[in-house]
Amino acid sequence: MDKVLEVKDLHVSFKTYGGEVKAVRGVTFDLHKGETLAIVGESGCGKSVTSQSIMRLIPEPPGKFDGGAIIYKDNDLTKLKESEMRKIRGSDISMIFQDPMTSLNPTLTIGDQLTEGILQHMKLSSEQAKKVAIDMLDLVGIPSPHVRLKQYPHQFSGGMRQRIVIAMALVCQPEVLIADEPTTALDVTIQAQILELFRDIQKKTGVSIILITHDLGVVAQVADRIAVMYAGKIVETGTRREIFYNPQHPYTKGLLNSVPRLDVDGADLIPIGGTPPDLFSPPAGCPFTARCPYAMEVCDKMYPYKTKLTSSHGVDCWLQDERAQKLLATK
Amino acid sequence: MLGYLVKRIGSMAVTLLVIITLTFFLMHSIPGSPFNEERATSEAVQKNLESYYHLDEPLYVQYFLYLKSVATFDFGPSIKKSSQTVNEMLGRGFPVSFELGMVTLIVAIFSGILLGIIAALRHNGFIDYLAMTVAVLGISVPNFVMATLLIQQLAVTWEILPVATWTSPKHMILPTLALATGPMAIIARLTRASMLEVLTQDYIRTAKAKGLSPVKIVFKHALKNALLPVVTILGSLAASILTGTFVIEKIFAIPGMGKYFVESINQRDYPVIMGTTIFYSTVLIIMLFLVDLAYGILDPRIKLHKKEGK
Asked: What does the pLDDT look like over B236-278, one tens digit per residue?
């Protein structure tokens, strides 16, 4: 499949009073055309920072880009001028944020907020832009869009607002859509509707989606491929099937064990003990060592190399080394 | 909307009535009267004068007589300047005071907001510190001190601007500057603070993610939200500018209303005291009303009137 976007060895840090937080420490992944890639991980693992770095939305300072490349259409986005980047934002790559209650401007009408992106990127009159906006609202399932266009965000429910945010992101037909926890702030029934909408839109427009989430339920529903992130690094990548049925990294296993299951009687929820490492001074070795039930001496000393299990399944873990004790690694 | 207007105008009338009543009785409770000066007048003349101005009647009768005349927009004759009515004095002084007040308000609002925005965008930079230092100075230096300093430097030492009076646009610069500095500083600080807060909001990030230019983000997305707190204080700021005009008019020999206001109190010129007070209060009440209207325009979530059944 064609690669739409490639992120290579991305490093991002934040300057704080307490010191420098290394939020993203060498993230590499690529996004294929028309697929949904889910980036999963617990709070603070750097998934949002990764996604916002692609759009160059990290405020600098305190944020700092420390190296790496983000390749989109033969351009390295990290090297573009701000004015060139603005042309890409919203038109080629667009983004949906977590909280629909706060991500719309309360003092502007929905129509205004929808059309301004169109007017910015496409050569259309405001009448035509309005038409595009109405079609878009229709696509995301907002009834009577003509009327709704003149209304303000506070006149919509949370689910409706998220639909509007999605419409806003799609209005210029981007190739890449980054959705940062798009369903986290919504209640479960609305979540399902929004996920359904994502699948629907992807079928209609062929947009590639990067879905940032900590919710494995969401991932199971929509992701084609999954990247598991931990402490600023991607520790395992694979197709949905590979990650859910054949997880190899102990952290991925831990994540899956901590999801409630309805299909297995008496299945216990097994939480991952401990907390993620302090990213002020990240460990030299595997960051999961302290919480890992299979930790070996080498884990603490050196970060593992990437092992390719299949063409799509890769994992950063010493257990994959042929010298590791296989018995321990089975469960 | 119409219901709201009627209700609002009703409450404005009540406010005004309270102000009239309080001022009237407070004014009469000050010892002395317009006619007891050191110069001795004969008792007969004194009596005649008092009866002419109804000052010999009981206070409540005077009160109702006054209300009656105010209701017909007649503020009565001045006692001290017997050839003039209060209406004439207001008619002459108000346009000048209004001009001074409005120019000041406009200068203060625009320069304050602009300064605030620049400071917020250059947050913690040199320009920010400079602007905020100027703002603190502006707040701490009283306008009469400002006025004298400006006259000393610009009019006396450098001789680029006229010292006083109100005859040409050039004459307006110094009084306006002196009067506008304080309010401008307050507006600048407030704009900066609320701008900084608004710029961290999620919808600003959304606007950035759409690829909008910084100018559009600041003026279309941020400013409208950042202005809400500024609009809130505009009412009281207008009041302070209004009262500030008394002093500034005096310093610059501007023929506005301030002169009448201050003189009338010193001289116990009852009708003039009442007339100017009522007039200033009316202007202020209307200002506050406009501020409330501006609120509704800036923020659609604020409804001035309740919808039926919702």
From this structure: 888 778 777 888 888 888 888 877 877 888 888 888 888 888 8
Placement of tokens 């306008």 in the chain: B143
Cβ(A55)–Cβ(A178) below 8 Å: yes
Chain A residues with CB under 8 Å of B216 CB are 116, 120
**What is the nearest CA distance from A156 to chain B, expressed in angstroms?**
12
**What are the beta bridge partners of residue A315?**
A236, A307
- Please name the member of B205, B209, B300 whose beta carbon is closest to the beta carbon of A107: B300
| Candidates A86, A102, A109; nearest CB to B203 | A102
- In the chain, the amino acid numbered A89 is R
Contacts of B201 (CB under 8 A, 6+ apart): A102, B225
In a domain, A98, yes or no: no
Q: Which residues, including other chains, have CB under 8 Å from residue A163's CB and lie 6 or more apart?
A: A137, A140, A141, A142, A194, A197
- Structural domain boundaries, residue B228: 86-298
Q: Check CB contact under 8 Å for B212 and A168.
A: no
Residue B188 lies in a domain: yes
Is the model's pLDDT at B310 over the cut of 50?
A: no
Task: Check which CATH number belongs to the domain holding B243 and give it.
Answer: 1.10.3720.10
Residue A17 belongs to a domain: yes
pLDDT at A186 over 60: yes
Compute CA distances B266 → B26, B250, B278, whole Å: 14, 15, 18
Predicted confidence at residue A325, as pLDDT, reads: 67
What is the C-alpha to C-alpha distance for residues A169 and A72, in angstroms, rounded to an integer? 18
Q: Which of B124, B203, B206 to mutate to test the interface with A (most CBs of A within 10 A)?
A: B206
Q: What is the pTM of this model?
A: 0.78
What's the number of domains chain B is made of? 1
Which run of H or of E encompasses A10?
Answer: strand A3-16
Q: What's the rounded mean pLDDT across residues A230-243?
A: 90
Query: Using the beta-carbon criterion (under 8 Å), do B206 and A94 form an inter-chain contact?
Result: no
pLDDT band per the 50, 70, 90 thresholds, residue A237: very high
Across the interface, whether the CB atoms of A89 and B224 are under 8 A apart is answered: no
Q: Is residue A20 part of a domain?
A: yes
Alpha-carbon span B217 to B303, nearest angstrom:
25
DSSP run (H or E) holding A104: none
Range of the domain at A283: 3-31+41-87+224-329
pLDDT per position as a tens digit, B77-100: 887 777 788 888 888 888 888 888
Rounded Cα distance between A168 and A135, Å, is 11
Please tell me the total count of domains within chain A.
1
Q: What is the Cα–Cα distance from A287 to A297, expressed in whole angstroms?
A: 13
Would you say residue B92 lies in a domain? yes
Shortest distance between the Cα of B220 and any Cα of chain A, in A, equals 9
For residue A36, report the phi and psi dihedrals to the nearest 5 degrees.
-110, 120
**CA A167 – CA A103 distance, rounded (Å):** 13
Q: What is the ipTM of this complex?
A: 0.82
